[in-house]
Specification:
alpha+beta, Translation Initiation Factor IF3, 4-stranded mixed β-sheet, 44% strand
Length: 107
């Protein structure tokens, strides 16, 4: 499955647009990470536990989007975007979305 954040695929022709596909996940932090994050806000710097949590959440959301595209018979997902928001204290939603398409090589 080809994944791009542009609205075309170089050297390929879009033969069919299958529609919007998305994947979403709500990820929460654990107490240990929460405590360490609180300590980090005092001294400053990257909160690695949260960074890791969001990287994992993006991976899960991307996989779910790809799974939905695969179920539609897509060859690629174009114009991929990510969004995130705080759902509640200690939890963030990450969404990945794009357009599922079928393509053929121009060569």
């Amino acid at each position: 499955m080809k994944l791009v954040n542009i609205d075309y695929l170089p050297n390929e022709e879009i033969t069919e647009v299958l529609g919007l596909v998305k994947g979403t996940v709500v990820q929460s932090k654990n107490i240990g990470r929460d405590f360490m994050a609180g300590m980090k806000t005092i001294v400053g710097g990257e909160i690695v536990g949260y960074t890791d949590m969001l990287v994992m959440a993006r991976q899960i959301a991307t996989k779910r989007m790809v799974d939905e595209a695969t179920s539609l018979g897509a060859d690629a997902v174009i114009n991929i975007r990510y969004g995130s928001s705080a759902v509640m204290s200690g939890a963030a939603e990450v969404i990945a979305y794009g357009t599922a398409v079928k393509v053929k090589s121009k060569n």
